[in-house]
Specification:
The protein is mainly α. It has one domain. The protein has 5 helices and 2 strands. The protein has helices at residues 9-22, 29-36, 55-73, 79-101, 108-137; strands at residues 39-44, 50-54. The longest helix is centred in the last third of the chain and has 30 residues, at 108-137. It is globular, with a radius of gyration of 21 Å. The N and C termini lie far apart (48 Å).
């Protein structure tokens, strides 16, 4: 049943926790944006410059890795994949509602996470349709030109 769980729900949940608990007042956009922009650490680059890594940057990087895993999961043609795609669609609807209605979610970080969720939904359905079409196309043995005598 774990295979049916959309893993992109984890970055969405983390953003929700950050936006709703750390912002003190709840749904304030400026506070959520400030927390996403907080510098967590710096990395010294080979060019002798310092790269500051913010909380939002780290959340987006983790979300991209999770999106990659989700795309790999979508290539399976098991029945559980249909449940995964449906749950991903529900997650996208939730993200869209949060983005449009609540100020704390009207940030670039959450917008990009929402884009990743919709890409997961689209890729999942497209891969499933293409895989199903391939399974059906080759059953007849060559395009239907051979009629029984």
């Amino acid at each position: 049943m774990f295979a049916a769980f959309p893993l992109l729900a984890l970055p969405v949940l983390v953003y929700n926790l950050i936006a709703l608990t750390l912002s003190g007042g709840g749904f304030k956009a400026a506070t959520a944006q400030a927390h996403m922009g907080e510098q967590l650490f710096t990395i010294k680059m080979a060019s002798n410059t310092v790269w500051p890594v913010a909380m939002g940057d780290l959340l987006l990087a983790v979300s991209l890795v999770v999106l990659f895993i989700e795309l790999l999961k979508s290539t399976t043609s098991r029945n559980i994949a249909i449940i995964n795609h449906s749950l991903s669609l529900i997650l996208f609807i939730l993200c869209l509602v949060e983005f449009l209605l609540f100020p704390a979610f009207a940030t670039s970080t959450f917008f990009l996470i929402t884009v990743m969720v919709v890409l997961d939904v689209l890729a999942g359905f497209i891969v499933t349709i293409v895989a199903a079409r391939r399974d059906v196309d080759f059953v007849g043995g060559g395009g239907g030109d051979h009629l029984p005598h």
